[in-house]
Amino acid sequence: MIHNLAQGVQAFTSNVFLVEGDRTVLIDTGANFDVVDAIQSRVDGLDAVVLTHTHRDHVGNVDAVVDAFDVDVWGYDETIDGVDHAIEDGETLTIGDNEYIALYTPGHKDDHLCFYAADAGILFAGDLVFQNGSFGRTDLPEGDRQTLIESIDRVLESIDTALTEMHTGHGPSVTSEPYDHVELSGRMARQA
């Protein structure tokens, strides 16, 4: 079961996905709202926090979540404050009830990761791509348009056309032909 805990929140935050199952994981912590209360209203505890990247809107609530649940935080670069363990490109992680492969996808930020479960047809895309061909900003520090395009291409090569769900860092999740949205994002990034 995947819940977006930031849905309906009127604050500067990212989406925050609580993935319940054998290993209950929080993907990104968001910022500027009481995510701890939102977690506690659904589950008793967390097994891990996994970060798509460390922009402030995605990690602002890390300390509160760690304090409340005594949980470790996983991300691409453990030298960044708040990240306890590194996730390697190509590493397999259990999130909820599924096995996800971590895809290193810089371009929006140097430590950006996407997570893909082939068997379940689920992609957590972070801020790489969004609904309707939108894509992550490249005008912030560490942003690079060409690198972002290469990362989108890598995701397209890694995911199946039968992808059923794409959960993004901002905006709605995509459950209707999400592969097409990723493909469109790649085309739009090349044209922008």
Automatic annotation (TrEMBL):
One of its GO terms (molecular function) is hydrolase activity. Residues 167-192 are annotated as: Disordered. Residues 13-170 form the Metallo-beta-lactamase domain. InterPro entries: MBL_Glyoxalase_II, Metallo-B-lactamas, RibonucZ/Hydroxyglut_hydro. The keyword Hydrolase applies. Keywords: Hydrolase, Metal-binding, Zinc. Its cofactor is Zn(2+). This is Beta-lactamase. It comes from Natrialba hulunbeirensis JCM 10989.
